[in-house]
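Appendix B, record 7
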Amino acid sequence: MEILVCVKRVPDSAENEIEVKPGGADIKRDDLVYSVNEWDNYAVEEAIQIVDRVGGSVTVATIGNEESEEVVRREMAMGANSGLMLVDPAFEGSDGRGIAAILAAAVRKGKYDLVLTGAQADDGAGQVGGMLAALLDWPYASLVNMIEVQDKKLRIGREIEGGNQEINEIMLPCVLSIQTGINEPRYVGIRGIRKVASVEIPVMNAAALGLDSAGLGPAGARVKRLDYFVPPAGAGAEILEGSTDEITVKLIDLLKAKGGLK
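Structure tokens (predicted):
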């Protein structure tokens, strides 16, 4: 089975304190630590496990710039067979539909049976997987937390409201958005990173993908972000400040004072 997994380089929320720029146009990105999007990591692990069971190969693709190469190489060190970089200044500022159009063009250039995305990326909209499937005219399922390969189709589980599980059959080729918890992503060691350090990763721009750059980027975006802001603290809210140990002590004292702990 030939599987393409879409991955993205995002600010690591565990390593950064995210702050909004004055004016709300964006977050402050100077000196941020970046890593692979958490949901995408589960998608790559699931693709590797599927190929281990039934054969085939895993390709990881990302839209970005030269700095995004580190994410592709990390997922190759994890076990993906190859990578693909989709890089063009025209791609910058694309909305969800623009991103899906770029990925759809990359899918058409290959021969894939299955495309996996994370359930959502750093903007949290969770829209690219569904849009990608629509542009390809492939069946689609979101929040997938179980995959069993059958003949020309998959048996999948989906997480739905109330913690319930929904089981479906979906025909191949298809697009699935993967939920965290479907597996346990494997550890990436130094040996694996060194192994793929010199592997050539193909780079495709708009022309190579057969895309009209005029329909991409801010000019082609139908959804435009107007503002980032931190919601004001509500009535009665108290923000605890200090180190982790100091906040822990303050929280315990507060819970005791409110009767939550004895």
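Remarks on this record: Residues 119 and 177 are 5 Å apart (CA to CA). The chain has eight helices and eleven strands.
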